[in-house]
Amino acid sequence: MLAAGLAGVFGTALSGRAAQAAPVTPPVRLDQLNLVNLSHVNDPATTNVFPGDPAFELETIATIPQDGYYLQFVREGEHTGTHWGAPGHFNTGEPLADDMEPADLFRPAVKIDVRAKAAANPDYAVTIDDLKAWEKRYGRIPDESVVVLWTGWDAKWGTPAYPNTDADGVLHQPGFSIPAVRWLIDTGRLGRRGGTGTDTFSPDVGTDETYTVSKLVYRRHRISLEILANLKNLPTTGAWVLAGGPINRRGAGSTATVFGVLPPGVTPA
C-alpha cells in the first residue's frame, strides 16, 4: 500500500525504453517519512457516540495475575470514534469494506481551515466559493484527493459541545454544502477513490438529516474520514492520509487509526 501511494507522491514509475533512458532517481527511504496521528483514543469515558449508535463499551475479561495475559472485550459500532466509511455505508450495491483496495485508504490530502466560519455559525456549509478561494491561494486540489475540513470540532471531543444538539435533539455541526461536493466530484477532484475528511461526525451539515452529501461522497471507491483529531498537525498541502483498521466482512467501514503521512520536505503544520 505504501509503495502504491508513494508512486503517486514521488513520481510514476517508468517502463520500457523510457525507463532505460531515464536517469535513476534515488529511492525515498521510508524512515524519512514523518507520521502524524489524526485519531482520538477510543475511551468510553470521552467518546461521543452518534445519536442512535450503540453504546461504546470496554470490558476487561482477562488480567495478567489471574490469566497470565491482559485482554479487553470491545463493543462498538463500526463508526465509533475516529473511523473511515466505505461507499456501501450509504448506497446499496456500492463497495463495502472488504471490497476496497489498499490504495483506497492511502490518498493525497488537503486541509481547508474553516474554523472561524464554523465558530461564528455551527451550521456553516462550505461553499464552492470557499473551495475556489482556497485553490487561489494554495493551488488546484489534486485529483482523487481526500479534502479535509478543519472545523475546530476536534477540540470539543468528549464534551456535550461536540454533538452540539439542541432541545429537539438536532445536531449542529458544520460540513460541506451539497453544491460544493457536487463541484468536487464533477471536476474530478474527488475522482474514483478520493473522499472527504472532517473532525465532526460527518461531511454533512448536522442539520441535514437527508445525508445527501454522504450519499454523494460514498460512491465508487470514495471514502469519508470522520471524527479526525489533531488536525493542527496536518499540513495544508503535501501530505497523504492513511487509514488502518479491521476489515470486517461486509463492513460499513471501521474504527481506525488514521495517520497523516508527510514526505521529506513537508513539515507538520
From TrEMBL:
Keywords of this entry: Signal
Domain of life: Bacteria
Pfam families xref list: Cyclase (PF04199)
GO BP, sorted A to Z: L-tryptophan catabolic process to kynurenine
GO molecular function, one term: arylformamidase activity
Cross-referenced SUPFAM superfamilies: Putative cyclase
Coiled coil: none
Keyword Oxidoreductase set for record: no
Keyword Signal belongs to the record: yes
InterPro entries: KFase/CYL, KFase_sf
Gene3D superfamilies documented for this protein: Putative cyclase (3.50.30.50)
Residues annotated as signal peptide: 1-21
Listed PANTHER family: CYCLASE-LIKE PROTEIN 2
Protein name as annotated: Cyclase family protein
Organismal lineage: Bacteria, Bacillati, Actinomycetota, Actinomycetes, Pseudonocardiales
